[in-house]
Design a protein that fits this description.
extended; alpha+beta; four-stranded antiparallel sheet; WD repeat; 645 residues; repeat; phosphoprotein; Methylamine Dehydrogenase, Chain H; 12 helices; WD40_repeat_dom_sf
């Protein structure tokens, strides 16, 4: 206790203490000499004048010594007979030891043991101290952009940019180290010596894999309302099916749990999940409808009529619709309004795909061309002649590097979308029947459906490529829809007899980002993700061919804008103000003097430039003299060498 609390709690058996609280018991007389001796032996402080060295003892010893001396023992932690409790007080000037010998020694001993244990694990005896080194290839894999020097800016801005660069480097290093925590690896189907993997049947693959993977191969016989279009959610957990005769169903396909099943009593041309699996966009015969996961109609967009194909841009919350009337419309599902509507003037639009890298929409037309569209432009960004006949299908790989097209000329072509040689065919393969549907997987596999046969190719394989298929499967009806399931080695096929889920080893990405598309997220996590996605929504005006163009400066455009501004205003507003000499007295502000002073200031930059050039020239001439000019062999010194400069 400190301060006034010491004065309040005092031992009532000390000589200078105030009277104890009133009690029913009779007060004991002051301690005599024997009691004082017993108190001294037990370590209890005596009167104020006593200089006895106090020792730390247990409470039981103090009580026993006080009882032997005939003095009352110190009060315990419980209540006394009067109901009051007094705390003991040390005499003035006697603070006692701060810590017992046993406690301090035990503390030092335990601390030493902890230090030794730490050294044995990662201290001086650690043969590899510090963090593990990282290779440049791993850092390059996770680095977002190259290292950029700080621009010439103000001190605070330069420091902020430097901190941002350091944070980006640190995050890439942590991501490279955490790559070891990704246990899953992609695999492929490998045949025996001389065996063609295209001859392996789906039943054989299902028998060779584990039970959980074998359960992903199944078929749904729905021959009454077909043919079917399909779509998977962004997490790969949910599946929606839309039949041409009005059948609409949504289910959790790994568990085969049906969410809803209705009949819209109208032709269904295409279906697409929106940003969540709780909302499905359905292109019906007349208008565009949006349903929830219980089959309840949420919206009916009458401005989008006779829609044939749907594509959803997840980072922009845009639903792109291609109609039979030839209109390309962008609907913002977060605001509920149409942000753009284009008329390509190419007839019916029933071939559409999106580029996941830059959110550009690819449209295939009957004249053999493919046009690339952005909601910010009324005209196509690029127009490519791909086939001699009409285009039947278009697909773009997830990296935005390759585009696959098929046409009525029975040609399957792969185009390169990068660099100066972009939009040129890399590979061409003739097909017996033109592919009516194309789809890319997350790892670059290409599925092509012609009639009732589905072939899967590996375009990145240098040996096979499009020469021979990787897998082949024949169905019971003509194919009307293809879609790879995200994060799964599964290809969904919608056909005239229902739906079939195929096993395609190596198609899906084995590791997913738990903060972006988590297949196992809860309802609360889904709600939090939706809020964050809405906050990070990208405006539709930023969609273009180069998604990184926003961070660069267009120098030519800036110079042209500056020139137009000067022509419009008649002067350069960014030019420095002309020099105006200060008026002086005694005739020094005459016209000639003013012109002389103006000319002197105007030519100061030129004079400084000339001085700098002269200094550089003198320095260049002085360097050979210091080193000494080499003389030609056989020449003799001359008296005129001293005048050589």
């Amino acid at each position: 206790m400190n301060g006034g609390k010491k004065q309040k709690a005092r031992r009532y058996w000390e000589g200078d203490a105030p009277d104890p609280p009133k009690s029913s018991k009779k007060r004991q007389p002051p301690p005599d000499e024997a009691a004082a001796a017993a108190t001294k032996a037990s370590g209890i402080a005596g009167p104020p004048g006593d200089r006895t060295i106090r020792k730390r003892t247990r409470k039981g010893d103090v009580a026993a010594a006080a009882k032997a001396a005939g003095t009352p023992a110190p009060p315990s932690g419980g209540k006394s007979g009067s109901g009051a409790s007094l705390n003991p007080r040390r005499p003035a000037g006697d603070r006692g030891p701060s810590k017992s010998v046993w406690t301090s020694s035990r503390y030092r001993e335990e601390k030493q043991l902890r230090t030794w244990a730490r050294q044995r694990l990662s201290g001086a005896t650690d043969p590899f101290p510090g963090p593990a080194p990282l290779s440049a290839d791993k850092l390059k894999k996770f680095r977002r952009g190259g290292e950029k020097p700080a621009p010439p800016a103000r001190h605070l801005t330069r420091a902020r940019l430097s901190r941002a660069e350091d944070g980006a480097e640190e995050s890439s290093a942590w991501a490279a180290r955490a790559e070891l925590l990704l246990p899953e690896e992609p695999g492929f189907l490998e045949g025996s010596d001389g065996e063609d993997t295209a001859t392996v049947r789906q039943r054989d693959i299902a028998d060779a894999v584990d039970i959980a993977s074998a359960a992903k191969y199944f078929s749904l016989k729905l021959d009454q309302f077909g043919p079917y279009r399909l779509d998977y959610s962004s997490t790969g957990r949910h599946l929606t099916l839309g039949g041409r005769r009005g059948h609409l169903a949504a289910l959790d396909w790994p568990t085969k749990s049906l969410s809803c099943e209705i009949n819209v009593m109208e032709a269904v041309r295409d279906v697409r999940f929106l940003h969540l699996e709780t909302m499905v966009a359905v292109a019906q015969r007349r208008w565009l409808h949006i349903y929830d996961n219980q089959g309840i109609e949420l919206h009916c967009v009458r401005r989008c009529d006779r829609v044939a194909r749907l594509e959803f841009l997840p980072f922009h919350f845009l639903l792109a619709t291609a109609s039979e009337t030839g209109f390309l419309t962008y609907l913002d599902v977060s605001l509920g309004k149409i942000v753009a509507s284009h008329l390509p003037r190419a007839g019916r639009l029933d071939v559409m795909a999106q580029n996941p890298h830059n959110a550009v929409v690819h449209l295939g037309h009957g004249n053999g061309t493919v046009t690339l569209w952005s909601p910010a432009m009324k005209e196509p960004l690029v127009k490519v002649l791909c086939h001699k006949g009409g285009v039947r299908a278009v697909a773009v790989d997830p990296t935005g590097t390759y585009m696959a097209t098929s046409g009525l000329d029975r040609q399957l072509k792969i185009f390169d979308l990068r660099g100066a040689g972009a939009y040129r065919p890399l590979t061409t393969r003739p097909l017996a029947l033109g592919a009516a549907h194309l789809a890319y997987s997350q790892r670059g596999l290409l599925a092509a459906a012609a009639g009732d046969v589905v072939d899967v190719y590996r375009p990145r394989d240098a040996d096979a490529g499009l020469a021979r298929p990787y897998l082949s499967h024949r169905l019971h009806g003509h194919v009307h829809g293809l879609r790879f399931c995200p994060f799964e080695d599964v290809l969904g096929v919608g056909h005239a007899q229902g739906f079939t889920s195929m096993l395609v080893p190596g198609a899906g990405e084995p590791n997913f980002d738990g903060l972006a598309n988590n297949p196992y997220r809860s309802k609360k996590q889904r709600q939090e993700w939706e809020v964050k996605a809405l906050l990070e929504k990208i405006p539709a005006e930023l969609i273009g061919l180069d998604p990184h163009a926003l961070g660069r400066v267009d120098v030519e455009t800036m110079e042209q804008l500056k020139k137009d501004r000067i022509e419009r205003l008649g002067f350069d507003p960014d030019a420095p103000a002309p020099f105006q000499p200060r008026a002086k007295k005694k005739g020094r502000s005459s016209t000639a003097n003013l012109l002389k002073r103006k000319r002197k200031v105007a030519d100061e930059d030129k004079r400084e430039f000339v001085r700098q050039r002269l200094r550089e020239k003198e320095r260049d001439q002085a360097e050979p003299k210091k080193k000494g000019k080499p003389r030609p062999p056989g020449s003799r010194p001359s008296a005129l060498d001293r005048f050589d400069r």
